[in-house]
């Protein structure tokens, strides 16, 4: 079995690569970083370090190789499953290569699992491909909810190996069950779910909202790391209250038991406190204009809370700090 992952960055290697290796796939990463490509093709493996406040483990991901984006179409033509983790701003650049790969499949179906931090990513990618080809009915565009946190790596964390990735223990990938056009593959920790709207909104309006508020309030107070911001008792209270309001809104919107949603919120708060990830407020807060869009993690969360008559003052503290950051 062969999987193609378009994007050999931290999410591609640190999350998708692990799931696919543990499921028995050969994984082909498509990227433009020649140094990374050459190293993957020389080693055919790379280390993933799983870190949290309680422990650290390192595992080796094997059965991998890489190609440059120029050769993407040939790999897509023979893939059993495909993922994108290239970044929202890159999708328009890689869409022609994906379209070419689909044409080379000569009618054979393919599901593309889209691991991008974007609402309606399935429709966005489909529209991009539609500019180049008439998309066959057996090509599936599958939204996912990427919850695993992977920090920006620095020289010290690489320890001499540019392929090493640090990740948190959380390793579950919910995907939109209804969007598959072919047999759903059996991939470890991939959870096909329907309806999928709850998973999309809980990632955006619980995980991303709380993370963003911690980042913008943390930067305002001069903190470098997310865990430092969460160690500030006042910021902790603001984040927790904002996430409680969001959890109540999600519970009402999707008819989920409030205890189930709050358990997820509390687990997220615990994960935000993971000091070994070294996740920075700057990384989480970057691209602030997009994150202040009307339906994104901050204003969108306010709208959802307003819809269900819930308080929004703690979310608005994050919005004001984001505006200060801009």
- Give the strand tally: 11
Radius of gyration: 20 Å
Note the overall shape.
Answer: globular
Structural class call reads alpha/beta
Please indicate the percent range of residues in DSSP E strands (runs of 2 or more): 15-25%
Succession of helices and strands: EHEHEEEHEHEHEHEEEHHHHHHHH
Integer tally of domains: 2
List the helices and strands and how they pair.
Layout: E1 2-6, H1 10-22, E2 26-31, H2 34-43, E3 45-51, E4 56-62, E5 64-68, H3 72-77, E6 81-84, H4 91-104, E7 110-114, H5 121-130, E8 139-143, H6 155-158, E9 165-167, E10 173-176, E11 190-193, H7 197-220, H8 226-231, H9 233-254, H10 258-272, H11 281-285, H12 288-291, H13 299-307, H14 313-325
Parallel strand pairs: 1-2, 1-6, 2-5, 3-9, 6-7, 7-8, 10-11
Antiparallel strand pairs: 3-4
Helix pairs in contact: 4-5, 7-9, 7-10, 7-14, 9-10, 9-13, 9-14
């Amino acid at each position: 079995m062969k999987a193609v992952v378009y994007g050999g960055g931290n999410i591609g290697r640190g999350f998708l690569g692990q799931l696919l290796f543990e499921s028995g796939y050969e994984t082909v990463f498509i990227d433009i970083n020649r140094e990374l490509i050459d190293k993957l093709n020389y080693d055919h493996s790379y280390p993933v370090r799983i870190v949290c406040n309680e422990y650290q483990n390192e595992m080796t991901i094997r059965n991998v190789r890489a190609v440059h984006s120029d050769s993407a179409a040939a790999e897509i033509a023979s893939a059993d499953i495909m993922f994108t983790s290239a970044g929202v701003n890159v999708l328009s650049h890689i869409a022609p290569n994906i379209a070419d790969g689909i044409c080379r499949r000569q009618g054979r179906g393919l599901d593309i699992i889209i691991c991008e931090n974007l609402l309606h990513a399935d429709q966005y990618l489909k529209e991009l491909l539609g500019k180049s080809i008439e998309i066959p009915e057996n090509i599936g565009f599958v939204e996912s909810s990427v919850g695993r946190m992977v920090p920006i790596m620095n020289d010290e964390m690489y320890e001499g190996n540019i392929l090493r990735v640090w990740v948190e223990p959380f390793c579950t990938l919910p995907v939109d069950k209804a969007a598959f056009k072919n047999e759903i593959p059996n991939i470890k920790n991939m959870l096909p779910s329907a309806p999928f709207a709850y998973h999309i909104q809980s990632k955006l309006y619980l995980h991303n909202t709380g993370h963003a508020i911690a980042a913008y309030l943390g930067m305002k107070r001069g903190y470098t790391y997310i865990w430092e911001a969460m160690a500030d008792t006042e910021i902790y209270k603001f984040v927790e209250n904002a996430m409680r309001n969001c959890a109540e809104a999600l519970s009402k919107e999707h008819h989920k038991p409030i205890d189930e949603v709050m358990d997820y919120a509390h687990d997220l708060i615990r994960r935000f406190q993971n000091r070994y990830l070294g996740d920075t407020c700057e990384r989480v807060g970057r691209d602030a204009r997009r994150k202040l869009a009307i339906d994104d993690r901050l204003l969108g969360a306010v709208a959802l809370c307003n819809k269900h008559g819930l308080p929004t003052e703690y979310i608005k503290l994050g919005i004001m700090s984001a505006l200060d950051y801009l």
